[in-house]
């Protein structure tokens, strides 16, 4: 259908952002897979033997899905893995032994830096990039944007006005986001940096600060506070691999790490460490409010952050809440929420198995969840309209339910709940007739197609789905992919109000690229007594761990375990679902 496109479900793990930096990371399967995938694309761009390029692409695909790290796999077995041939096997050993891949390095050397950057633009595969490069002689992002604006792309073979326009939009999106990262992409880097600098500079105090310390979901730079003069910090950090200095002033140094990530080091006197930590951690709005509340006098020379809050007559506000919402007045009234922590999550809600587009079998998913101490798994494969994700037709739903019944006997008291991630169709309807919807314990309703809607259309579609008595949870509310795609336009208040009126739970999708609903709307959802559900949307057993990122976002919104459906025990969830069905006159 014209004007529509399908969004591939997010099965992809997050990439390590500094490849080939053994100082920070070992060579894991993902890094090896990335290297093969990059090599295959570069070979295509250079018009090399496409059979060879394909074999590297298929090795990348195979390796990404391997259950065991290649570094822990006996060498002779590596060559027996299906999809890995003689030459790819040798390259793997080379990468494991030397952390290098000379063939890839060769192609990186003969490719202009601008072409490597252009490879990051969505909608441009290797063949199209080769055409742009060879026929228009474009070698940089700026030239490509210019060519789009001059309508030069649409004249090329395989392109058209529509492709050109979408390339143009994708370049603009990329340019506005290129030095920004998801928290999850830089979380390990930030924590390791803090540790590394503490060791390097001991006994000088060092702490993470700024947006990273507040667990912001998007990170523009990692900030660290160091109780030493700028000159000393400059001298010491210059010795670290990957660090290059870009700007200096009396109190700050700005660095680039691996030419990608901005690092800011703040310097202060040892006696001002806690005061400066306080001042550099809170958002501007928080600091302004703290001053307005009469707290300014207690900052300078403080012996700890706790002392600052105590002197100001407030409870301690943890860094992640210092955003300038209502936390200061709550802290004064001793009413800060006791926010949820990862161990409060009792079950996996929203997961996919290999019945649709997941990587693991139903039994593997359930067994892994049980082994990790969870009490239940809500399996919610894709519905039939999601044909690109192998969505389930009615006969397959019945077959899956039989498998779930058998597994529930085998794994008791662990329980698998029967669910479906039902596409919300264009007109707001769910994807099956009522008698099939009634067979699920719960239904997660999500939009996956035709995302380019006006707000009016998006709202009508969502509200109709929320009003459907079978909808238990509204999945990833705006469809946004952080730093990749804006969500469809929605009126958050109206959706939250509709969920409150219809007793529908709002998902906080925990995938670090979604974190959708945005945490800034959680206060309003709480005010309206809407339940939130921190859901990993796991497409493999590895996906469970995304719960940590959902929990961090929930903490920023002040969610407690009582406000979160996935904190319910198995019995609580079962009762909740039965009562809800009764309320909605659904036979159970
Ligand atoms: Zn989905
Ligand atoms: Zn899903």
From TrEMBL:
SMART domains cross-referenced by the UniProt entry: HhH1, POLIIIAc, POLXc
Gene Ontology biological process terms, A to Z: DNA repair
Annotated DNA-directed DNA polymerase X domain residues: 27-323
CC terms in the record's Gene Ontology section: cytosol
Cofactor(s) named in the record: Mg(2+)
Annotated Polymerase/histidinol phosphatase N-terminal domain residues: 347-426
InterPro entries: DNA-dir_DNA_pol_X (IPR002054), DNA_pol_lamdba_lyase_dom_sf (IPR027421), DNA_Pol_thumb_sf (IPR037160), HHH_MUS81 (IPR010996), Hlx-hairpin-Hlx_DNA-bd_motif (IPR003583), NT_sf (IPR043519), PHP_dom (IPR004013), PHP_phosphatase (IPR050243)
Keyword Lipid biosynthesis tagged: no
A molecular function (GO) term: zinc ion binding
Pfam families: HHH_5 (PF14520), HHH_8 (PF14716), PHP (PF02811)
Keywords annotated in UniProt: DNA replication, DNA synthesis
Residue ranges occupied by any Helix-hairpin-helix DNA-binding motif class domain in the UniProt entry: 76-95, 116-135, 151-170
Protein name listed in UniProt: DNA polymerase (Family 10)
Organism: Chitinophaga arvensicola
């Amino acid at each position: 259908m014209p004007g529509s496109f399908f969004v591939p479900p997010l099965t992809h793990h997050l990439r390590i952002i500094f490849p080939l930096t053994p100082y920070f990371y070992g060579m894991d399967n993902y890094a090896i897979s990335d290297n093969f995938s990059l090599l295959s694309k570069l070979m295509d761009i250079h018009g090399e033997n496409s059979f060879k390029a394909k074999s590297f692409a298929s090795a990348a695909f195979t390796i990404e899905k391997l259950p065991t790290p290649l570094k822990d796999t006996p060498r002779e077995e590596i060559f027996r893995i299906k999809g890995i041939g003689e030459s790819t096997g040798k390259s793997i050993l080379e990468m494991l032994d030397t952390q290098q891949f000379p063939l890839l390095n060769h192609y990186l050397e003969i490719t202009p830096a601008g072409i490597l950057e252009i490879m990051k633009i969505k909608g441009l595969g290797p063949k199209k990039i080769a055409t742009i490069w060879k026929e228009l002689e474009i070698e940089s992002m700026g030239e490509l944007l210019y060519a789009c604006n001059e309508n030069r792309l649409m004249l090329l073979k395989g392109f058209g006005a529509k492709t050109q326009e979408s390339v143009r939009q994708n370049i603009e999106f990329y340019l506005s986001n290129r030095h920004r990262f998801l928290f999850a992409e830089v979380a390990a880097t930030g924590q390791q940096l803090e540790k590394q600098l503490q060791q390097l500079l001991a006994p000088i105090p060092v702490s993470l600060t700024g947006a990273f310390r507040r667990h912001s979901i998007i990170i523009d730079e990692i900030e660290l506070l160091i109780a030493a003069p700028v000159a000393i910090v400059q001298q010491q950090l210059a010795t670290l691999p990957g660090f290059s200095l870009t700007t200096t002033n009396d109190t700050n140094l700005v660095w680039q790490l691996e030419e990608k990530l901005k690092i800011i080091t703040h310097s202060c006197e040892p006696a001002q460490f806690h005061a400066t930590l306080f001042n550099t951690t809170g958002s501007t709005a928080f600091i302004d409010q703290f001053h307005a509340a009469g707290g300014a006098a207690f900052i300078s020379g403080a012996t700890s952050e706790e002392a600052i809050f105590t002197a100001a007559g407030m409870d301690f506000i943890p860094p992640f809440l210092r955003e300038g919402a209502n936390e200061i007045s709550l802290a004064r009234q001793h009413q800060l929420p006791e926010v949820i922590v990862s161990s409060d999550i009792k079950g996996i809600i929203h997961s996919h198995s290999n019945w649709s587009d997941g990587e693991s079998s139903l039994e593997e998913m359930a067994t892994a969840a049980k082994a990790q101490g969870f009490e239940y798994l809500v399996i919610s494969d894709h519905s039939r309209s999601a044909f690109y994700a192998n969505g389930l037709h009615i006969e397959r739903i019945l077959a899956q339910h039989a498998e779930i019944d058998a597994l529930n006997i085998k794994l008791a008291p662990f329980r698998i709940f029967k669910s479906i991630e039902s596409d919300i169709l264009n007109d707001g309807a769910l994807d099956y007739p009522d008698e099939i919807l009634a067979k699920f314990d719960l239904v997660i309703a999500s939009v996956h197609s035709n995302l380019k809607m006006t707000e009016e259309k998006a709202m009508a579609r969502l509200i109709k789905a929320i009003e459907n008595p079978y909808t238990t949870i509204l999945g990833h509310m705006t469809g946004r992919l952080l730093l990749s795609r804006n969500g469809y336009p929605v009126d958050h208040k109206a959706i939250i109000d509709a969920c409150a009126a219809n007793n529908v739970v709002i998902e906080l999708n925990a995938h670090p690229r979604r974190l959708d609903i945005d945490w800034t709307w959680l206060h309003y959802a709480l005010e309206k007594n809407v339940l939130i559900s921190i859901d990993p949307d796991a497409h493999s057993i590895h996906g469970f761990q995304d719960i940590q990122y959902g929990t961090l976002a929930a903490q920023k919104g002040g969610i407690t375990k009582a406000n979160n459906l996935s904190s319910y025990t198995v019995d609580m969830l079962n009762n909740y679902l039965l009562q809800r069905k009764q309320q909605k006159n659904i036979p159970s």
